[in-house]
Amino acid sequence: MMIRQLPAWQFACAVLFGLSAVSAFAQEPTPQNAIVVTAQRSGAPMWTIDTDSGTVILVGEIRAVPKSTPWFPDRLEEATKEADRVIIRAAPKFSPGDFFRLIFRGGRFTKLPDKTVAGEYLSAAQRARLAALEAEYDIDYDRRSFLMTSFDLLARRLDFDDDTTKDATDIVKKAANRADVPITRPERFRGEDLLDNLAEAPPESHIPCLEAAMDATEAGQPIIEKRGDDWRSFDIPAVMDNPLEIALSRCWPWADDELGDEIRGQWISMISDASEQTGVTLAVVPLRVLAEPDGVLDQLEAQDFLIGGPDWRPAG
Fold first, then answer.
1. R_g of the chain, CA atoms, integer Å
2. Whole-angstrom Cα distance, residue 261 to residue 62?
3. Alpha-carbon distance 196 to 201, whole Å?
4. How confident is the model at residue 31, as a pLDDT?
5. Please, are residues 48 and 58 in contact by the beta-carbon 8 Å criterion?
6. CA distance 150 to 247
7. What distance in Å separates the CA atoms of residue 22 and residue 234, rounded to the nearest whole number?
8. What does the pLDDT read at residue 26?
9. How far is CA 92 from the centre of its chain?
10. What is the pTM of this model?
């Protein structure tokens, strides 16, 4: 089966002129195509799956879109109101007991174990890079867990989530609730399971996350705006190659093999189920889950789904 992928510039032209990336040359517009056109005019990158009974729209979401990124959330909201159903991510399910567990076991998540220090796990070059960042920001990371250090570098030093717009998930959720559009979410992870998974992870497993967080922090704030601009211009390989996106994808829980596979499996299952439904399904999916190698788009393509939208793989 032919898989129709459009280069980024062709996809952008289709959106600009009000055409569906999959059905731009259809003889007669349909209500389904109208919803696709409205969604695409929001400026968010997306893919469509056309079936005999309906259409699935996959919106590739990045978190913390800068306010400087010129997209139009109101158009995504409008498309949501006309959809037959939506799929959005779910927050973990934490119980009161999980919060007590976090309080009493908090040191296992925030500190390196057994009073060890960073230099006992890192190479000399890695420790030197971390020392340079400690000096620059006047902070001591020596006893902190590598995951907490990474989060601190990205959120407080790089400050990637400051001055941002609402995420696509929040926009779609609010619009769907107002219009009484049914919402489907993945099965929620239990807080207990997440905390156990994190507590059992050895410090070494978070070193790739730390290295990527240092890369992003050293690159500085220009990568934040570039990530938003590349996302808006449908240059998916450039977004995926951005140091910030790489850092977010290499940190827990995404980088955990068990959790990562389960997250991907949930999305594949929900999208496959939606493809059998009548009408239009609008799904907001993390872009890194969609476009990563052997990610959701690759796996859907392997199942012979007809996918329309921008290229998600690097050229060549």
1. 21
2. 19
3. 9
4. 66
5. yes
6. 9
7. 15
8. 40
9. 16
10. 0.84
Answer yes or no: are the C-beta atoms of 239 and 225 closer than 8 Å. no
Which segments in the chain show pLDDT lower than 70? 1-31, 92-108, 188-197
pLDDT of the residue at 218? 98
What are the domain boundaries of the chain?
Answer: 5-310
| CA separation for the pair 14, 18 (Å, rounded) | 6
The CB-side HSE value for 65 (13 A sphere, CA atoms) comes to 24
* Phi and psi, residue 227, nearest 5°: -60, -45
| Predicted pLDDT at 264 | 87
Classify the C-alpha dihedral 28-31-36-41 as positive or negative. positive
Strand 85-87 with 54-61, pairing: unpaired
198: which 2 tokens?
Answer: 């994190």
Q: Report residue 65: phi and psi, to 5°.
A: -70, 125
Task: Say if CB 133 and CB 153 are below 8 A apart.
Answer: yes
pLDDT digits (tens, 9 = 90+) for 39-89: 999 999 999 999 888 999 999 999 999 999 999 999 999 999 999 999 999
Beta carbons of 86 and 169 less than 8 angstroms apart: no
List Cβ neighbours of 153 (8 Å cut-off, separation of 6 or more). 133, 213, 214, 216, 217
